[in-house]
């Protein structure tokens, strides 16, 4: 269900933590979001997740638990956010 080997390191390292004045990289973290298009969690996001889950198109963006592949745990996590209605609006206003 994904193209990464199980247990492989999570390759999406968009989150970076710097120490001190920001010159020394302290850690690079895997970052995932349920809202792929920035407009709140909707049908487009569901279609994107389904593509990753069933086809392995880009497992990093849908690998929410960081285990290297898109699994049932990631589906459970996405479904909880999607059906829970916790993101009717996107984060574009908060994240420039």
Neighbour order of strands in the largest sheet: 1-2
Helix proportion: 25-40%
Number of helices: 3
Based on secondary structure, the structural category is alpha+beta
Taking Cα atoms only, what radius of gyration do you get, to the nearest Å?
Answer: 15 Å
For the sheet with most strands, the description reads: 2 strands, antiparallel
Give the number of DSSP strands.
2
Quick one: overall form? globular
User: Helix-strand pattern, N to C?
Assistant: EEHHH
Residue stretches low in confidence (pLDDT < 50, at least 5 long) are 1-10
Q: CA-to-CA gap between the ends?
A: 33 Å
- Beta-strand fraction estimate: 5-15%
| Average predicted local confidence, pLDDT | 76
Q: What would your notes on this structure say?
A:
The chain contains 3 helices and 2 strands. It has a two-stranded antiparallel sheet with strand order 1-2. The chain has a domain of 51 residues. Strand 1 and strand 2 form a beta hairpin. It has 96 residues and is of the alpha+beta class. Helix content is 31%, strand content 11%.
